[in-house]
Amino acid sequence: MDSLVGFVGKNYVLMAGDTNAGRSIMRLKDDFDKLVQIDSHKILAKSGEIGDGNQFCNLIIRNVSLYRIRNETELTTKSVAHYTRRQLATAIRKNPYSVNLLLGGYDKKDQKGSLYYLDYLGSSKKINYGAHGYAALFVGSILDRFWKEDLDFEDGLELMKKCLREVEKRLIIGTRCFLIKMINSDGISVVEKVMINSEKKNEIEEEN
Amino acid sequence: MFTLGSVLDNELKSSVEDFSFETEFSTNQLMLPNIEKPFEFAQSIISLEKDLDENDNQPMFHQQKKEERKERALIKGSKGTTTLAFIYEKGTVVAVDSRATSGQYIASQSVQKVVPVNQYMLGTLAGGAADCQFFLGHLGRICNLYELRNNEKISVAAASKLLNNILYSYRNYGLSVGSMICGYDTRGPQLYYIDSDGSRLKNSLFSVGSGSPFAYGVLDAGYRWDLSKEDAIDLGRRAICAATFKDSYSGGTVKVYHIDENGWVKISDDDASELWYRYEEKEKKNK
Are A50 and B197 a contacting pair at CB < 8 A? Predict the structure, then answer.
């Protein structure tokens, strides 16, 4: 099951996803990037079926590019979220895409990052922090407790690692490896491909 | 309703009159029964093994529906096979077994589970034999047309994407395809896994089928990028052999292919049971 986590900080958006792609009990690929780049300052994090995710994200990327080519201007994160939601909603009763998404973006005009939570049923909500998949159960409370407005990048990264550590610790399905990406005024950058091993931490504590 | 014959005629006609990319590759017509809800009909006569083996904790009406479907199940799809492929420094190795089962009986020990797409690309077969054979054969036709029109060899990425798009458009129709597109092109050795659910994954090694966990065990233990050609071929052969030993739905003969810049070549074709004991003797001699 896919895990996606994201939250907004001071002039950046931090997003993380696990890097597993599998089929039933088997892991087919352990370096699968679920944080797809839509344009220079937006990421669509996808979870759910692999085929639906690929095709739907391709649809959004191409249409956003087409808009940019036709109108010589980039869409805001809010517009992309609304467009994406509409695509999901019109498809739900005909040919549903079983993908859950987190859309994160940085708007140069507002000088702010924003995060949207999108569902396969066609729901959409602007959020400060959120998660998809089993991670949402574990990480929701951590973010409720520790997220603050305008977190620095270092604090934000520490908070993200705290969340991912909890997912690795409690989720019985092994998801050790996560990819963390950040969006800020300079664009999208891969922060870290982190391999969490919470067991090691406990050993050190016991020794001390 | 279009028949299979007229699909191909349409394709050729459209290629002469119209050079647009869409008509070239949008061959989305399959023969479906001329009834009100063809999708529901297709679902009702096809039962996949995973549906039949679900736990019994379902509400009563679900249970009844499952029983009805079991009775009417004319086509049973299951991926009773072992196929594997991996890329390494010098090329791509593809290894398959050759057993086909229907229920508890072995239907055939000599099934051709590797379908050549063109001279430097192979497709493997897992799931429904008819589905795989048709779509891989069709992929071969499309790739040939691409080469003729564009005067360049199609890349493995493009070929796998074409197949992926076709299968995605049929994703709820009960097709069962678990194929790997393996080849060698300008980017080097390439390997893609294509599924009837619509997934397409790129990686350096894959194994598909009921015997795949067993094959993965041997494969993961021995795989390195800088294997020699001999070692790579031996690794593929041993992995399938191990899978046929453990999995009852895999067996027959072990076929190994190698793809490099000169195209694909069939390396060997050994009986699976003999192979196991041959390896055992080899180990004894080494000790």
Answer: yes
pTM, entire model: 0.81
Q: For residues B179 and B277, what is the distance between their CA atoms, to the nearest angstrom? A: 30
Distance, in angstroms, between B127 CA and closest chain A CA? Answer: 14
Q: Are A84 and A44 in contact (CB under 8 A)?
A: yes
How far apart CA A99 and CA A78 sit, in angstroms, is 19
pLDDT of residue A41: 96
Nearest to B126 by CA among B209, B243, B11: B209
Beta strands A187-195 and B178-185, pairing class: unpaired
What backbone phi and psi angles, to 5 degrees, belong to B118?
Answer: -155, -160
pLDDT in tens, A123-172: 999 999 999 998 999 999 999 999 999 999 999 999 999 999 999 999 88
Q: Which parts of chain B sit beneath pLDDT 50?
A: 1-27, 49-54, 56-64, 69-77
Contact state of B213 with A32 under an 8 Å Cβ cutoff: no
**Cβ-defined contact of A49 to B206 (cutoff 8 Å):** no
Q: Which entry of B23, B27, B81, B124 is annotated as an active-site residue?
A: B81
For residue B9 the two structure tokens come to: 């005629």
Q: What pLDDT digit, counting tens, does each position of B140-193 carry?
A: 999 999 999 999 999 999 999 999 999 999 988 889 999 999 999 999 999 999
Contact by Cβ (8 Å): A170, A139: no
**How close A11 comes to chain B (CA, Å)?**
34
- State yes or no: is B81 an active-site residue: yes
Burial A7-30 (b: 16+ CB within 10 A, else e): bbbeebbbbbbbbbbbbeeeebbe
| Beta-strand relationship, A35-39 and B263-271 | unpaired
